[in-house]
Fold this sequence. Notes:
The chain has helices spanning 14-17, 38-45, 79-91, 110-118, 162-179, 194-207, 237-248, 252-265, 284-287, 294-303, 342-345, 347-361, 363-368, 453-456, 468-473, 497-511, 516-524, 528-536; strands at residues 9-12, 50-53, 57-59, 66-72, 95-100, 104-105, 147-148, 151-156, 183-186, 212-215, 233-234, 273-275, 307-311, 371-376, 380-385, 388-393, 399-404, 409-412, 418-420, 425-430, 435-440. It has 18 helices and 21 strands. The protein folds into four domains: 3-105 and 161-360, TIM Barrel, CATH 3.20.20; 106-158, Oligo-1,6-glucosidase, domain 2, CATH 3.90.400.10; 369-455, Golgi alpha-mannosidase II (Immunoglobulin-like, Sandwich); 462-536, no CATH class. By secondary structure, the chain is α/β, with parallel strands linked by helices. Strands 11-10-9-5-2-1-13-12 form an eight-stranded parallel beta sheet. Strands 14-15-16-21-18-19 form a six-stranded antiparallel beta sheet. Strands 6-8-7 form a three-stranded antiparallel beta sheet, with no helix packed on it. It is globular. The model is unreliable at 457-485 (pLDDT under 50). A hairpin with a 2-residue loop joins β7 (147-148) and β8 (151-156). α7 runs antiparallel to α8, α10 runs parallel beside α12 (347-361) and α16 (497-511) runs parallel beside α18.
Amino acid sequence: MAWYDEAVFYHIYPLGLAGAPRRNDYSAPVHRLNALLPWVDHIKRLGFTALYIGPLFQSVGHGYETTDYRTLDSRLGTNDDLVAFVRTCHDAGIRVVFDGVFNHTGRDFFAFRDIREKREASPYRDWYCNVNFWGNNEYNDGFSYDTWGGYDLLAKLNQRNPAVRDYICDVIRFWIETFDVDGIRLDAADVLDFDFMREVRHTVDAAKPDFWLMGEVIHGDYSRWINERTLHSVTDYALHKGLFSGHNDHNYFEIAHTVRRTIGMVPSHIKLYNFVDNHDVERIYTKLRNKAHYLPVHILLYTLPGIPSVYYGSEFGIEGRKERFSDDSLRPAIDLAEHADDYETNPCTQLIAALGDIHARYADDLAWGPYRELALTTEQYAFSRGRLIVAVNNADKEAEIDVAADEAAYVGLLGGERLEAKDGKLHVNLPACGGEIFAPEGEEASATPCLSFAEQFALKGAPTLKGIVAEAEEDLADGPAVLPEDIPDVPYDHMTVEQLQAVILAKMAKNGPVNDQMRRDVMANVWRDSLVNWANSFR
């Protein structure tokens, strides 16, 4: 058993979190990495046992156009700062994983710069793929070369060149010896040469026991990358997609199918890297149409097979939308002091802390316990992990399910409810957009109750609509509106289609009589985004 098998990861994009300038002018180092030291206590407090942080090394812009693999980006500080940061993490019991950007380099990397200066006479002309001195590129260098993603800024390294392999392996040994790093996330692993990855695995196995190699793989048969000779794990983008769309579309079949497919694809001792957002995709709080689904999404993140990871800031429920020409909104600077009260007042932060505590106390079940599907509908999903039973509900109303139970009684680890099994079945009542993790009776419940999570969103300061229908209903003089019995005290984009229709009718009534045609127009509109915009249009 290795440390990473039971790890819970926190993910930091350091250039963003530290508020570094977008462009590196290679001036004197600014010690911004030191400003992240208070985050180590925060990470530990929320139950994380490992940190994936990167990119870290000298680059000209976003960090993935490396210019020097052996020097901390001067916008973050010096190598001594990074040594001290990793040591602080280790002292807190937190393992550290760096970003390894070995598929490509920036144009300021010494080998590429030499090609620009010496052209055909450069000894590094074979360090890059398909260098053609009869071609050209957007920088008008007078030669062309393979790139990553079609970006001439990112020149693709020739990993079949023994000199390139030796250089990168020397870099990895340098990272281990200098910084005592515990693992590497290989950027763009899905386009790396397999022989190169085998050489990297051989290098780290010899350099440091229990060193972890995880690869960024967007899609495909994960077993191609994960085995005893290449990588230990890869990113599970299939589950990432399922976790948010399975809630937005009220379709737990998508998530369950993804889990079954993965179990059939990789051996049981291999654990994929699970996440709901990262530095390349929109924040989970932005992606969810119903923000209250944050609870069941994260219950699944922490309890489904795999290694859970939370991207910095998402424990506070912050927003982040991917833009056409910039990912800056996904990688913001955050002042931790501004969130000092979130441990007590923010339901997102409270949930992550509770799940971290549960994962630590039930590591054997959540890391090694077999997965068994117990119940599945479009809106309810239950499964067991070892001794634990997990149940979630994506419906906008309460639900009841019966699941097979091996013990006589269970206690909810999030809410503390005690349930007795009858005839080998556990009858579970799930709140709207809710979920629970049940353990055999005798286990202590979490100190942070989270089952009223949907109701707690009003604490986050979003404008709510409680009472609008009641105030306006008496003004509906042109026939009764089709109104649900209860309009929840939540923002517009948390409401169901029916609730939004009711709110729009009520607002219309406050402005004057509502005739049959107006009512038909509202009821014919069944598109949530359109209804949200319509509701927002009233003043």
